[in-house]
Specification:
Chain A is mostly helical. Chain A is 73% helix and 3% strand. Classes of the chains: A mainly alpha, B mainly alpha.
Chain lengths: 297, 357
């Protein structure tokens, strides 16, 4: 039993898990507001990271300008996707909408490889990287930064939905689109806004991951990891998504610990979330906090 | 093999037998038979390259057909089809390598084994629908691929498994020219089987579940049974197709059968037309020919200004992926019924030629 290693991995899991939580949160946001399952969530992350990288290295923009520029770009990009691609798909069967986002993810993935190349790129150093020492644990500053940013985004999101007018409009739309429309909420704008916010939040997560690990097309794997997290939490619960993300992050690292200490199977780390996913779907298909879909005839 | 829907006005059927014929008219039947006979001469007439494309279309069309049973007829969606395809390939290779049975029997056996695996994944899937199912099949894709890379005894692990050439009772077929007929036979049998399935009670039950599963259940259709069944059927055809692919390539490896391949299978179904059997064949041909035609175009543009601007040579793979994605999106937005629908429209246009519109 290697306690030091276990705790190190669990801290790692917590940090990665909060990031999963942030991405899952933005995924659930789109699903809740527009009933679209976004298979291109990971690509949004990747686009954000690449754009920020390009601004910082190609154009030599300082980080405190480059980051807001990236966010503005992603905000506009999210609106553009919604208007051009997904608005015409409203009312189409769920299969078609899912397929459109799958198509989008293929296009983005290939286009990014085309534009930025296939090689991973190191991110310019934003913070002076040191490790902090907590009770004998080595924790890198970037990890602390990543945790702080994630929690800040979650708090911001909670504030947005609870207090702000737009957040209220979004919750109303998620509850019932027709009623919301009759109360004077522009459902069209809410849809666009949901995509914009989701893209922006994903981009922040993307930049955070990029700062820690560099930019590569592997970043879009976060989009796949979102599914176990969101399903575990319940697809239409934002709080559940966050919790699900943290659980999946911890679980992954715990699986890696078990694997490296006892089983020696190899990549259990990557596959464990999917086993959990299947089990959750069999026992509790609506997740921990999801609303049950009761059908009346 | 006209689709059951969209029969033009004035085309009345007066008996059940007439309503469920495979071919709506005698001409269409003769045309189909003539077409098949013509295709039989392909190995004599075509070069190696065209023949290999035809074989690929034939193999993938069987897998796409299986997916269309699931997506087009039952209204379930799966993005783990490539994993089942690969499972069939590995199973057939494993069976023919370890057991003393000729490949001729290994291929249908691989189909059956894959169908059983499909049923295992289909049982939890039968409770789920729409989105939850998509995610369950996504998990199936990852779990199966992980299994292949782990199970050395079965798939060779990181080393590609080798598959025997097609043989029956000591007689071995070698080369594309002979293998073409094997694929053609499997293709014909699968398409006939599925067309016939759609004429039976079970086939109608699947369509009823797609159209409105609550009404279907109220009418006494066992949802769990038919959803699981369609999952098994889809896996069966994927397995057959994978086995054919294994004995065509003679090696099987994990490479290139990730989630992208599953998406390509879905693209075949959607481009061809969900719920159309002939459409599946058209969609497969389209998707297989698309990268090839892009290759031809880029070869044709060599040295021109466009070539220099895009540096086609280095980027052809990315451009190909972009094209596939854009075509999926385009079809869903502008032609949701796929090529099969367009084909019907072309036919009606020519039927009334000078007076159409």
């Amino acid at each position: 039993m290697n306690l030091q290693f276990l705790i190190q991995l669990l801290v790692n899991g917590l940090v990665v898990g909060t990031l999963y939580g942030v991405v899952a949160m933005s995924f659930v946001l789109i699903y809740k507001a527009t009933q679209v399952v976004n298979f291109a969530q990971g690509e949004l992350l990747l686009i954000g990271a690449w754009v920020c990288w390009a601004l910082l290295t190609k154009y030599q923009v300082p980080f405190w300008i480059g980051m807001p520029l990236t966010l503005v770009f992603m905000f506009a990009f999210g609106i553009a996707i919604q208007i051009v691609i997904l608005r015409p798909m409203i009312g189409e069967p769920i299969i078609s909408v899912i397929m459109v986002t799958i198509g989008l993810s293929t296009v983005f993935q290939a286009a990014l490889k085309w534009i930025f190349g296939v090689n991973p790129q190191p991110f310019p150093r934003v913070f002076t990287s040191q490790s902090l020492n907590f009770w004998g644990l080595q924790i890198q500053t970037v990890y602390v930064m990543s945790l702080v940013v994630s929690v800040a985004m979650m708090v911001g999101m909670a504030w947005f939905f609870r207090v702000s007018k737009y957040g209220l409009a979004m919750r109303a739309t998620a509850f019932n689109q027709q009623v919301a429309q009759s109360l004077g909420i522009s459902v069209k704008n809410v849809f666009a806004m949901a995509w914009a916010i989701s893209a922006t939040v994903s981009a922040v997560a993307g930049v955070v991951v990029a700062v820690v690990n560099g930019v590569s097309s592997g970043l879009s794997d976060y989009g796949i990891k979102v599914f176990p997290a969101a399903i575990l939490g319940g697809l239409d619960s934002i709080g559940g998504a966050v919790l699900g993300g943290i659980i999946i992050g911890l679980l992954e690292n715990f699986a890696q610990y078990i694997d490296s200490e006892y089983l020696h199977w190899g990549n259990l780390y990557e596959i464990a979330p999917f086993y959990v996913l299947i089990i959750v779907l069999m026992i509790k298909p609506y997740g921990l906090f999801g609303t049950k879909d009761i059908e009346r005839v | 093999m006209a689709g059951p829907s969209l029969i033009p006005a004035g085309d009345f059927r007066t008996s059940y037998a007439a309503d469920t014929t495979i071919f709506p008219t005698r001409t269409s039947r003769n045309a189909a038979i003539a077409g098949i006979v013509l295709v039989c001469f392909a190995p004599q007439l075509l070069g190696e390259y065209s023949l290999s494309i035809l074989i690929q279309i034939g193999i993938f069309a069987i897998a796409a057909l299986g997916l269309n049973i699931l997506v087009g007829f039952t209204g379930q969606i799966s993005i783990g089809h490539a994993a089942f395809f690969l499972f069939g390939a590995f199973t057939s290779a494993y069976l023919s390598n370890t057991l003393p049975i000729p490949v001729f029997f290994a291929i249908p056996l691989a189909g059956v084994v894959t169908a059983l695996v499909g049923l295992i994944f289909g049982v939890p899937a039968a409770r789920l629908k729409g989105l939850y199912l998509v995610i369950a099949t996504l998990a199936a894709q990852y779990i199966l691929l992980d299994f292949f890379s782990r199970a050395d005894w079965f798939s060779g692990g990181s080393v590609p498994a080798s598959a025997n050439p097609f043989s029956i009772f000591g007689y071995t077929l070698r080369g594309d020219r002979q293998y073409f007929y094997v694929v053609l036979a499997y293709l014909l049998v699968s398409y006939l089987l599925v067309t016939n399935l759609m004429r039976t009670r079970d086939g109608r039950a699947l369509v009823a579940i797609r159209d409105h599963y609550l009404s279907a259940e109220i009418m006494g259709i066992n949802l769990t049974k038919y959803r699981t069944l369609s999952f098994g059927l889809a896996a069966f055809f994927a397995g057959i197709s994978g086995a054919l692919y294994a004995h065509y390539q003679l090696v099987v490896s994990n490479e290139g059968f990730g989630i992208e391949r599953s998406i390509i299978f879905l693209a075949m179904v959607i481009i061809g037309g969900t719920g159309s059997i002939m459409g599946t064949l058209m969609g497969t041909a389209f998707v297989v020919l698309l990268p090839e035609s892009m290759e031809w175009i880029s070869a044709g543009l060599k040295g021109s200004a466009i070539d220099k601007a895009l540096s086609l040579n280095n980027n052809i793979t990315f451009l190909r992926e972009i094209a596939i994605g854009l075509i999926i999106i385009g079809f869903l937005m502008f032609e949701p019924d796929g090529l099969a629908h367009r084909w019907r429209q072309i036919k009606t246009y020519w039927k009334l030629y000078p007076f159409s519109h």
